[in-house]
Amino acid sequence: MAIYKKSIVSRIFSRENVLGLIVLAFFIVLSIFTNFNTDAGLTSYFKEAAYLLMASAALTLIIITGNIDISAGTLMGMCGYAAAYVAKLGAPFYLFIPVAILTGVIFAGINGIIVTKFKVPSLVATLAMVNVHLGIYTLLPSGGWVENLQENFTDLGGTVYFGFIPLILIISIIVFIGIMFFMKYSPFIKKVYAVGGNKDAAVLVGVNPDKVVMITFLIEGLLIGLASIFFYTTKHIVQANSTFGMEMTFITAVVVGGTSIAGGSGKIMGTAFGVLLLAMIKRAMIFFQLQDYYSYAVQGIIIIVAVLITFVEFGGKKKDNVSFEAIKEDKVNG
Amino acid sequence: MAEKTINKKKFKFTYQMGLFVFLAALILFFGGMEDWIITKPKVLFGLTENIMEIGLMALPMTLIIITSGIDLSVGSNMALSAVVLGAVYGATQNFGLALACCLLTGILAGALNGLLIAKTKIAPLVMTLATMSLYLGIAKIISGTRIFSDFPDGFTFLQTSKLFGVVPYQFLLFIVLAIIFWLFLEKSSIGRYIRGLGLNEDAVKYSGVKIASIKFSLYTVSGFICAIASLVYLSHLPAAKPDMGNNLNLQAITAVVLGGTSIMGGIGNMTGTILGVLIIGVLRKGLQLIGLGGDIYSFILGLVLVICLIGFSVFENRKKLEL
Amino acid sequence: MSSILELRNIDKSFPGVKALDDMKIVLEEGEVHAVVGENGAGKSTLMKIITGVFHSDKGDIILRGKKIKMKNPNEAFSKGIAIIYQETSLFTDMTVLDNMFLGHEPTKKAMGFIKAIDYKTMRKRATETFAKLGMEIDLDAYVRDLGVATKQMIEIAKALTYDADILILDEPTAALTNKEVNALFVIINRLREENVSMLYISHRIEEVFVIADRVTVIRDGQYVETAVTTDVDTSQLISWMVGRTLDNLYPKTDVEIGDPVLEVENITQHGIINNMSLTLNKGEIVGIAGLAGSGRTELAHALVGFTKIDSGTVKLDGELMKLKSYSDALAKGIVYISEDRKEKGLIVDMNLRENISMPILKKLSKMSFIDTSKETETADEYIGKLSIKTPNCEFVVNNLSGGNQQKVSVAKALANLPKILILDEPTRGVDVGSKSEIHRIMSKLASEGLSIIMISSDLPEIIGMSDRVYITKLGQIVGELDRKEIDQEEILKLAL
Questions:
Q1: CA triplet A305, A307, A310: central angle to 5 degrees?
Q2: Sheet with strand C66-68: strands edge to edge
Q3: Residue A58 pLDDT class (50, 70, 90 cuts)
Q4: Which of B8, B230, C115, C234 is most deeply packed, by most CB within 10 A?
Q5: Topology, domain A12-328
Q6: Where is B213: in which H helix or E strand?
Q7: C-contacting residues of B 245-274, CB under 8 Å?
Q8: Cβ of B141 and A294 within 8 Å?
Q9: Which of A205, A2, A204 is CA-nearest to residue C130?
Q10: What DSSP line would sit under C122-138, residue for residue?
Q11: Distance from the A262 Cα atom to the nearest Cα atom in chain B, whole angstroms
């Protein structure tokens, strides 16, 4: 005798399923009207998706803890720069990739320390760190630019299989699947949700919120480091500040995917769909040459619509039809 | 037991005093580089040259942050208003009309934020993050590839004209508005409600206060001020382009938070914001004077903000332990 | 029976206050041991020491015969002690299953070395635990979709997953209806059969006699007395709790009842209120009794303008009244004090003056500028009227004691100079001493011409304080009883 089961309708029309359908619909529409379904079109799309998946996954975790990282964009720039710099010196991929990751972990870790140890709210802390990052760029050799990148770097981004499946997408998907398993089976992730959902209750069951948030920032750094590789190896020049403002896109994907900005909830699969959708919208706009003017406006509208839909979702009264056979059997006298 | 309330007052006093001292130190420091402070009030006011638009936006921002909200769209709002001004004037050569459109844009943009934030459960962070993008986008659509620099003569009076030849009108504007906002926050009933909203929104609701109208008004006023800020900005750089406001969001918020207003809501005051604005202004101008440009300024601003946030946080936590 | 948990000579001080002074308590194995005392007596501090949230300054904790030191809450769990709080500490955006095992999920080694959650084992254990309580529940339901009673059951089940054999229940029935309370008692009896020992903290003295084997009374941080529940009665317990005899628990004086001030006729709110009618006369205290969810609070919300009435009329002093918002109600002199006082009523970081004046700030302001001296006058007036213990009105509310904070919210309501007060559970969670003070104030207000509607789940309170009682059931009013006719059985008969 089950007590509370979500209605069949709300199960079928779960956010993930609806998003998935929308992605599919977009795919079909775009294939018909644009150059989407060509080798060139798909390759660009997949390359976009590759780094977005990593970065948005990173932001998803941060947002679940109830925090935010506005410096994710500039962070990615620094990781990319570090990797490109080392690559220019001749380092192969198994060296420059860890460099990117390490850079990400260090700088995200700094954010984490400011938030956990010094208790500064993440919004302002990371808002300020954007400027610090930008300042660091100016101090970097060549002002944060690395030019004339060689094959050791660009091959990674340039390798494409079957004409339209980039290597970086494959790696990204593998990592993403790893993240999905992690989300489902790791006891640590439950703590992440707990800290974001109800910090006091988490403490009562022995969770250390500071430790959890700190580790989440470190994971974010790792993923952003990977994202920077997927982003920059597709280019021939690395400009640290070309990723300025990108966190907007990451956060949009997360919000579209159904994760609440308040923390405590969110599915990584939703973020994936958000990424696929956003990348498609971007491709569509590039194709219709609306990119430069309309992308910002569109992004803003998407966020508003996505969040408003979330509110419609969470309606419904509380159900308290607890089933107690006990009441019928025993009787407690007053 | 009464010491506890006194302690709180003492603490606030200390932080603000600290700000004042910091400001004075900055002025002396940069002044030491150039022998200009004491004898040249003109140069003192010159400090306020490029900071008044931020100062203006920081005023309603203070109120918004005290209600534990935030407005990340101020920069984009300002840019949009400026672009509208430029576009309408460029098309009609009618400054009155252009001005009206500019102000209306600011008001409507602010009102959109206010409406959705007041009427739905959407978080101000997300909403204004979205409109930050949206307004920037609309400004871009309107501009296309043009930069609007056709403005009437004498338009730059806010910047260039000075009362008694010394005090720039834009500074006067800032001070007048700052005083109004200060009075509003400290002495008016709505100011009390605003503080209450940041501390315990439900309690204010159950006192029969119309919270939705307060929130709506706050964001609308913020939008209006952004339009005015666009006038100030244009008066020293008469070229309206969509990305002119991109860096301003952080600076406005920095001024407010620097001034001692807590991002969590409920705590804060205008005096602190004014000090914060002046500190940022001195910092920027001072760095300029010694040859360090915009990037270094941003960097130092970021650092200063982080350090102040950490310091403020440490203060707050120590105070909590005392209780 | 041997004692499973014993605390001896416990001292605990905080800056400025000694919370526990040579406290002791003995919990026998398999018993339900009630702990009663006024607000501030030290019950919750004592529990926090048992569960490792606080460390005692002095004294011993002896668990199963061995002296131990409780370092943190997690240790308490591992030692088999679990506490169920009033405010459920569950994660609303997670499933029941995840909530139950958070922090101690059963794991297995995936791919030989990675720790992965073993969902199969988790589900099995969860189902078994709920079965032990005689319950079935959808483990994948999200906690946010469940009601208070269910959440409490989940908390108990969660405690059992730690193999806790010592449970501390802190005011478990505060938010439950009578039916749910019965269900809880059934579960407690079951647990008792499984040899779980329980500490039961409650303000509801009647419950203590129903469910507890023994009861300990504490007062002002000190141990007073322990007794077997069958050996004592309510007045004995109360006198131990307050250190004096309280002869008049419900000081309702007779008041001259005047004309109707509020006439509610056939109001309906689709799906929630069905054709309710009632009358409130001047100087009356009208009680509204009924199970939670029977429409009492919904009725109140509709009467004060929080929600809209779909059909029917409400007359104030004979004139038709249509409220568009709560501020309309306030303007007309109708004030609502919600049950969730601390959360919704007061801004604890502000001082008394600011809190009390908030509802009438407009009246205290000239052209929107606050007249601080008028504020202070008003605040001082109420501090006197309600005997609020505070050095002055600039004192921050957070630093007041619980009972005095309660009084501040009453002051806040009275500052509106209301004609009609609607109180929703006015003494829920309040200790006996403050309770009777609040009742005294209510009586006084009624005698001064105020009319009061009192919603309460506390039947003795309804019986003791009301001139008339309306009983609600499933969104309708099913009965009206006069003071002479009121008795517990009548009310229950109609309500169930």
A1: 110
A2: C17-28, C3-14, C58-63, C66-68
A3: very high
A4: B230
A5: ABC transporter involved in vitamin B12 uptake, BtuC (1.10.3470)
A6: helix B211-236
A7: 266
A8: yes
A9: A2
A10: HHHHHHHHHHHTTB---
A11: 8
A47 near A157, Cβ under 8 Å? yes
- What are the residue boundaries of the structural domains of chain B, listed by start? 51-267
Which amino acid, A160?
Answer: V
Closest CB from C343, C347, C370 relative to B199 = C347
pLDDT band at B289 (very low <50, low <70, confident <90, very high): confident
SS3 C294: coil
Partner residue facing B5 (CB), from C336, C344, C395: C395
Query: Highest mean pLDDT range out of B106-120, B206-220, C320-334, C421-435?
Result: B106-120
Select the residue from B287, B299, B317, B321 to test the A interface by mutation, using most A Cβ atoms within 10 A.
B299
pTM: 0.82
Q: Choose from A44-48, A256-260, B111-115, B253-257 the range with maximum mean pLDDT.
A: B111-115
Q: What's the pLDDT band for A157 if we cut at 50, 70, 90?
A: confident
Lowest mean pLDDT among A29-43, B39-53, C300-314: B39-53
Question: Is the CB of C89 less than 8 angstroms away from the CB of A4?
Answer: no
Share of chain C above pLDDT 70, in %: 91
Q: Give me the pLDDT at residue B320, please.
A: 58
The chain B residue lying nearest C15, using CA atoms, is B323
C206 CB contacts (<8 Å, ≥6 apart)? A334, C234, C460
**pLDDT value at residue C244:** 54
Q: Give dist(CA C324, CA C313) in Å, integer.
A: 14
- What is the percent of chain C with per-residue pLDDT over 90, rounded to a whole number? 16
CB contact under 8 Å between C186 and A194, yes or no, is no
Region C181-210 average pLDDT: 87
On chain A, the residues whose CB falls within 8 A of the CB of B299 are 131-132, 134-136, 138
For the cut 50, the answer to whether the pLDDT of residue B153 exceeds it is: yes
Average pLDDT of the residues in C423-441: 77
The string over B244-283, giving b where at least 16 C-beta atoms fall within 10 Å of a residue's C-beta and e elsewhere, is bbebbbbbbbbbbbbbbbbbebbbbbbbbbbbbbbbbbbb
Instruction: Give me the pLDDT at residue B237, please.
Output: 81
Cα–Cα distance, C425 to C203 (Å, whole number)? 14
**What are the chain B neighbours of C396 within 8 Å (beta carbons)?**
4-5, 8
Helix (H) or strand (E) holding B96: helix B95-119
- Residues in chain C, how many? 496
Would you kindly state where each structural domain of chain A is located, as residue ranges?
12-328
Tokens 């009924």 belong to residue: C290
Nearest-Cα residue of chain C relative to residue A265:
C93
**C212 confidence band (pLDDT: 50, 70, 90):** very high
Query: ipTM exceeding 0.85?
Result: no
| A127 vs B123, B131, B253: nearest CB | B253
Q: Taking the alpha carbons of C214, C218, C223, C224 in that order, is the dihedral positive or negative?
A: negative
Which residues of chain A are within 8 Å of residue B310 when distances are taken between CB atoms?
114, 118, 120
Question: Is the Cβ of B187 closer than 8 Å to some Cβ of chain C?
Answer: yes
CA distance A14 to A269: 12
pLDDT one-digit tens code per residue, A8-52: 655 566 777 888 888 888 888 888 887 777 888 888 889 999 999
CB contact at 8 A, A322 and C135: yes
- Residue of chain B nearest C337, judged by CA positions: B206
Question: Cα separation of A174 and C348, whole Å?
Answer: 51
C399 to chain A, any CB pair closer than 8 A? The answer is no
C-chain CB neighbours of B198 within 8 Å are: none
Q: Do A138 and B295 touch (CB under 8 A)?
A: yes
Q: Distance between CA A281 and CA A274 in Å, rounded?
A: 11
Which pLDDT band holds residue B154 (cuts at 50, 70, 90)? low
